[in-house]
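User: Fold this; tokens only.

Assistant: Input:
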Amino acid sequence: MPAAPGLNISLRASPAVLLAAGVLVALPFGPARAEHIENEVAQFAALDKVTARISKLEVPLNQTVEFGSLKLTPRTCYARPATEQPKTTSFVEVDEKALDGSQNRIFTGWMFAESPGLNAVEHPVFDIWLTGCKQPLGTAARAAAKGEPGAGAEAAEPVGEPTARRRVRR
């Protein structure tokens, strides 16, 4: 069957064209995903509405700190590398101590540092929200935990202060 006039179909392609087509096929579809960084300490801001005092709380994971009548326990704290768009999240449990000594869970869920009003603890007397994470578990600490060679005792210590993060206007 003859080709349509002006239509030149070639079954042979140059290596450069084939290479480009192969690269396009090999690219993943969908958005790129950044790995999250696990941290050992969650940072919170807490407001006492009676005294108008704002306190900064640094709480190690799975440990409880008291602020007024509230008990705050972070379970995880994830951040992204400084080269990525900021997204700091923490899974938190907050209990309230009653006058009779009993405890009532008033919040369980994820907090987002970039959207503090989304899932902050709002209490009649106290407000608590996530501000960041601290002490990331570095690759040297992971290597030491796995027992890989070249990771000395000093490498098992958490990496120092995280890189300063900037807020992105939306």
